[in-house]
Amino acid sequence: MQSDYAGVIVAGGYGTRLAPITHVLPKVLVPVGRRAMLDILVDQMTHLGIRDIHLLLGHQAGLVRAYVDSSPHLGELASLTLHTDTGDLGTAGPLRRVHARARHLLVMNGDVFTTADLGALTNRHASDGSALTVATTEFTTTIPYGVLHSDDRSRLMTVDEKPSLEWAVSAGIYAVGPEALALVEAGGPDEMPGLIQRCLKHGLQVSTHRLTGGAWFDLGTEDGYRSSLRHSESRDATDPVPAP
Predict the structure, then answer these.
(1) Which end of the chain is more exposed for a tag (fewer CB within 10 A), N or C?
(2) Contact at 8 Å (CB) between 27 and 15?
(3) In this prediction, what percent of the chain has a pLDDT beyond 70?
């Protein structure tokens, strides 16, 4: 149980990378399998024992409110607070609108679909005593050319044909403590990369946590969204959220 956490779903952007789908639906209502992303995210948080959940909205906020109002099961799972004017505040700026009793926030981007073990992230954040913990996933880039390695006299030594490079990248999921929240800029937009840099500048501990135990997809792109649909179909399940 994560009673010391409040949940935050960041879903105020325009979703331009997923157009034209997001011309009709806000990205947090885009379906994955038979369910809207909002249902999946709320389920994931409540499975962790989080009952206070804040939706940071902007673009098409009215559609999200209408969906919540017509979905009584969401209210049975958690107390949902909708902040409808945060779309221009970036990925970190809206956090200053969240007034929760819990000391820590589990922040999830509304266009991230994962079946990984999020409890491991919140537990790691607590055990490390970090001000902010960034969930990571692996991203692989393949260079479509032969890469040449020469010595200092320009003599060719080796050739790597179309090598692949693997990077640890932010998964769009964060555990944020009170020390980090205090560094969110007071006015105007603020972004998570900037907040992370300020935490480091102030000497606060920032940790990373590699997501394990499931898949991760960026629904902000057409390729990522299609991959999430294929993954959901391959599981042949009506509920893509793992059991707690």
Answers:
(1) N
(2) yes
(3) 90
> What is the C-alpha to C-alpha distance for residues 224 and 54, in angstroms, rounded to an integer?
25
Q: How far is CA 25 from CA 34, 81, 130, 175, in A?
A: 15, 20, 36, 28
pLDDT tens per residue, range 133-184: 999 999 999 999 999 999 999 999 999 999 999 999 999 999 999 999 999 9
pTM: 0.88
Domains along the sequence of the chain with CATH: 5-137+168-235 (3.90.550.10)
With b for 16 or more beta-carbon neighbours within 10 A and e for fewer, the 13-28 pattern comes to bebebbeeebeebbbb
User: Residue 79's closest CA among 57, 100, 97?
Assistant: 100
The secondary structure of the chain, three-state, reads: CCCCEEEEEEECCCCHHHCCHHHHCCHHHCEECCEEHHHHHHHHHHHCCCCEEEEEEECEHHHHHHHHHCCHHHHHHCEEEEECCCCCCCCCHHHHHCCCCCCEEEEEECCEEECCCHHHHHHHHHHHCCCEEEEEEEEEEECCCEEEEECCCCCEEEEEECCEEEEEEEEEEEEECHHHHCCCCCCCCCCHHHHHHHHHHCCCCEEEEECCCCCEEECCCHHHHHHHHHHHHHHCCCCCCCCC
